[in-house]
Amino acid sequence: MHILIIDDNEELLFALRQLLNDAAYHVDIAETLRKGEISISQKKYDLILLDWMLPDGSGIDLLTRLRHEKMLTPILLFSSKKEVEEKVEALDCGADDYLEKPFSNIELLARIRALLRRESSQKQTHLVLGGLIIDFSSRSVLVENEPVKLSAKEFELLELLVLNANIVLTRYQISEHLSRDFDHLSASNIVDAHIKNLRKKLKADELIQTVRGVGYMISR
């Protein structure tokens, strides 16, 4: 799989290239929109990771142009913008996903795997697991066709487990994902409490499996 990263943060580019190479992806980088466009014109990519703010313009502008040209390559937009309106704008302009900085490596890899599994012409917006239906676009959940209200953290936890199905996630990895404050990660008992609440609301104790001494996983 070939991935293009368009971002001007040298430290982040170095870290992402190493992370993705270790995960067996082939990675190219571009520090400006212009360099990114040149790379896209010369090579077919399976996924593009695009920063919102770049030295020579907005990633949204490039995203809009690429979608206008009918390019279907999945695009994940990075941004430090926190408002819901910005996320909506990105998705409306054709982004397949949106990731707020700072983000954890485990979350990025999960989202990359999810995007690469999707058909470019028919994007997956929901997932069915038995009687559980998860709609990622509206962040809603149905259990046996009945809506279940999850807190933001509970939905993030469910999404993380589902996108990493069949992979055991440690309490530290889950805590890193939920906290986003890498200097003050939540204690493991907080993770356990979120898991307990999620199981109770979903009425599916067996869905989220405990791997003793390690963490949790969902099997599919």
Can you characterise this structure?
- The protein is α/β, with parallel strands linked by helices and 220 residues long.
- It folds into 2 domains: 2-117, Rossmann fold, CATH 3.40.50; 126-218, Orthogonal Bundle (Arc Repressor Mutant, subunit A).
- It has helices at 10-22, 33-42, 59-68, 84-92, 105-117, 152-163, 171-179, 188-202; strands at residues 2-6, 26-30, 47-51, 53-54, 57-58, 75-79, 97-100, 126-129, 132-135, 140-143, 146-148, 169-170, 208-211, 215-218.
- Strand 13 and strand 14 (215-218) form a beta hairpin.
- Helix 6 packs across helix 8 (188-202) and helix 7 packs across helix 8.
- The protein is globular and about 50 Å long.
- The relative contact order is 0.10.
Question: At the fourth CATH level, what is the homologous superfamily of the largest domain?
Answer: Response regulator
Rg over CA atoms, rounded to whole Å, is: 18 Å
Kindly report the average pLDDT value.
85
Indicate the overall shape.
globular
> Helical proportion?
40-55%
Largest sheet: 5 strands, parallel
Topology as a string of helices (H) and strands (E): EHEHEEEHEHEHEEEEHEHHEE
Amount of beta strand:
15-25%
Structural class: alpha/beta
> How many helices?
8
CATH domain class name of the largest domain: Alpha Beta
How many strands in all? 14
